[in-house]
Predict the 3D structure of the following.
Amino acid sequence: MAADQINKILKAAEPVIFERGSQKRVGISLPDHGLENIDARAVIPEGYLRGEIKGFPELSEVDVVRHYTRLSQLNYGVDSGFYPLGSCTMKYNPKINETVARYAGFTNAHPYQPEELSQGNLELMFELQGLLAEISGLPHVTLQPAAGAHGEMTGMMMIRACHEKRGNARSKVLIPDTAHGTNPATSALCGYKVVPVKSNERGVIDPQDIERVMDEEVAAIMLTNPNTLGLFEENIIEIARIVHEKGGLIYCDGANMNALMGIAKPGKMGVDVLHLNLHKTFSTPHGGGGPGSGPVCVSAELAPYLPTPVVRKNNTTYSFDYNLPDSIGKVKGFYGNFGILVRAYAYILSMGDKGLERASRTAVIKANYIKERLKKYYDLPYDRPCMHECVLSDKTQASQGVKTLDIAKRLIDYGFHPPTIYFPLVVHGAIMIEPTETEPKRAIDEFCDAMIAIAKEAESLPDLLKEAPQNVRFRRLDEVKAAREPKLRWEK
Amino acid sequence: MRYIPGTDDDLKAMIDEAGTGSLDEILTQVPSAIRRESALDLPPALDELSLTRHMKRLSSKNAESDSTATFLGAGAYDHFIPAVVDQLILRSEFFTAYTPYQPEISQGTLQAIFEFQTYVCMLTGMDVANASMYDGASALAEAVLMARRIKRKANKIFISRAVHPEYRETVLTYTNDLDIEIVEMPYDAEGKTDIDWLKTNIDANTAAVAVQYPNFFGIIEDMDAISKITAPNETLFISATTEALALGLIRPPSEFGVDIAVSEGQSFGNPMGFGGPHLGLFATKSEHIRNMPGRLVGETTDLDGKRGYVLTLSTREQHIRREKATSNICSNQSLCALAFAIHISLLGKKGLWQMAETNLTLAEYTKKKISALEGFSIKFASATFNEFVIKTDKALKEINKKLLDSNIIGGLSLESFYPELAGCILFCVTEKTRKQDIDKLAEVLGGC
């Protein structure tokens, strides 16, 4: 087939699956059960049997395969190329983890099957709890939360339960201006008022500012370390001391743990509660937005409040322990996103101490390399060594009317997924770049070259950037229209 | 390390070329007092082959439903998943992408979610659906929070005791720190939510009434009767479903005036997987869109007028609204939603009906077989879909042991969730259950 022909196919529109028309086809075959099919009308009460579902497709297997294959071709993933989405840790997802996660004993196990028939799964969960405790430096772990934000909610509920037990739930939570939006949203869900804390001119929290706002109504401070500027909260020990002295607790958002593995343990910094994102630090696939997994690691004082159940080892067997009278309860059905736990466990076993430490060290060097190469062309608001990610801005390009969004869209034309943009909010027009350890130097150099070329285009051909992207099937999509006239489902 | 392409030379070159300073200099921002003192105490790194052996060993220590027939349901269902589903979700453009923040290069994920939202609307009959929640239990909890947001002046939520116990527990956890009072509605002798109780107790302070449809006992609730009580009282009606396949056969929640319909979606395209990852379906009426939690995909056009899709109405969400957001949720179960949509697409109109009908046929056969046995009877005389409760005076422990000897995992003993239902077992049958498994089950039970 000629290249033109292939390009034509790749650039063609893919109709919505419901527009394939009613073709009286079916894409599955069910086993013959050897019984006469029951008449549903004889079983289901009158008025409770549904009619035909209008608009439902009727397709053969090959129709379905072609449709979704086509859709996949309109997507860009880590396997497609460099994906430097800041704070999202888009590292390579090892293929072997997909293979082992599909072993029948993992996928075909019912959550309520007897514990003696689930010993492998319980062992895996118990072992993973231990591995995460060791990496985080916090001895007790729940694997139940389904995502980072879910872990935050679980952790903050435990903090509240702990204060209630001490006699006063307290009413406020301190949140730095560099925080992820989930932090304030989570605090509100746990019934707390948010007290914002400004970061200082070095991009980190100043202990003096904490001293000023810290009182006995503050339940906790929620911080991210390294923070979303990619900077280590260098005053963490002092901050922890101030907060602890007034009876507050330290919640650490572990979204950026990829900077710290084998370098420093949050448990040693005075952190009481930490959530980890297995889909970031521990290489489980992001899946187009999930499923993730957000285990929470806590100090001994918080252990009584863990969600039920936790996994225990009794000599040589493993079991679920539901007997936690002070537990916050359950945050979802069953035990967590078990399939994701399998992948993260396989990853940690493949890496070992040396591998994890090397991952973090490499990620840090690569982020600093990018920062140094690009700072001559882009504004770098905090010009100092960073950890695993760096944050630039569009300040230099703004004089040409070129904004961060234009730079991001132009990167698409160069074949890269853009970095995280307009976050953190403390940097106007932020461009947040996280390379991760799994990118070869060549890919990083190509990315830097593209960024530099774009900076030059911003001076000579600013309109080119404003019109980007032009090399892919879709040009910029109208988000205002989508919000103004919401069309959230297909209709004939 | 095979996943890290940077060699020592590469790293040195980067440090030298860009003048970043050495790693030690970079890391001076991490106070030395908290720096690593010794290696992490982790097992030595495994090569790929050793890893597969280790994982195989763990996996083989579990029962699995292809080798051992299971009659467990209760929120996780052993349905057959066509090979196409896994092959397609493994397309790395799907599974190694993240949230579609850059719509120009994420149209695959976005269109797939748009289609998923449409499927959820079709199944539930509702106007709008989001891009999915963590699971059915947390979706119900979010529905309760949403009902409270809509009904600003009412703070009581009634939840039927015939709702999955873990769903109820999750709701309690989510609402514990907020001004919401959860009240449990009893079930009656037929295993349905007690309508008389509801009639007597509903008042102006009742923000919402939540039932499961079909309920935890597999029973098709009297949705009409509930609706006739909630509607005149202007109380919101929430329905939760654990077995989404049932919605292929029974009337959708929308037709009973349900305001928020949630469901577990695992039955389509997703394995039981020891309890996760699964996905929560969340749908509501148009008028409530701006109170909805979670991600939404909407249709729009690009600069050339081409139809395309974007994340939309994000002013409800945490990254914009922060502490005033409708939820703290930041992601969805995207890949699970994709698997769901692919499976339903394969089934289509005819396959969905066939699959539901097969489940019903096998369940009715099982019900008849077991209830004919001496010492076993149907606990609740109500219509069910693919789950039902059997009452026996025989020792459950012994029954389950005998079943295991015949390579069968029996139903779920209800006593730990419902002390009043000692001696009751919840059975589930799917299209994977063979007639011979059912006959064997009846034979073993008959011998108990």
In short: The mean pLDDT of chain B is 96. The longest helix of chain B spans residues 334-371.
